[in-house]
Amino acid sequence: MSIKEVYNELSKRDLTLADFKAIVELKNQCIMEMNQEYLYLCDIMIVDLYINENLLDDALNITLKNINGIDSIVFKKLYVSFLERAIYIFIQKKNFKSAYRYADMKRKAIDLENIDEVNRWYLEMAYIFAELNQKDKALLNLKAILSNYPNDTLKALTLSNITKLYIDQKQIAEAKNSLNDCITLVYKLDDEEGITYCEYLNAKLHILENNYKLAKQSFQ
Fold first, then answer.
1. pLDDT higher than threshold 80 for residue 128
2. Assessment of whether the complete model's pTM goes beyond 0.85
């Protein structure tokens, strides 16, 4: 099988550590055939496998090695993919200053005409600023997504994050408005997880208003 065929076959699996040997064998084939692109793709596959297994230090080591070694011009999309994984790992490790640094590197690398890429960057920055307790900056990034033609799934996620920030800051009226918009959207999408989270946010709003009876009903 060709490198591409083996890679595509592996990509279809829910990879576990049992697949590690197969990925390494594919990496060796990439080295022999001097296929740098798929060599990077194999490393991304390993990073994702490690993340799924919660082996964050191992995932980070491979990610940073590739960020430092890759030609960010020739392999721009792969470079951005490694940056996104670095951001995610640092957020999971609660190292938000490092996450911010790599998010800033990503901003300089992405295509600013690509709406999806830009919106993903806004979302990452919103998470980072929220964790750094810079809620106003987090809100600005989330509102930037709403102004940048998000798809409905991203819009619902963004509205739920905005609602959460408003609740944290006890801005009840604003939270109600964004939550109502979010509820309409998650029902339109038939998003069960989104509906459940909206019910949770609604309960938190009722608690803020000292309406514990309605809060209890929201959780039921």
1. yes
2. yes
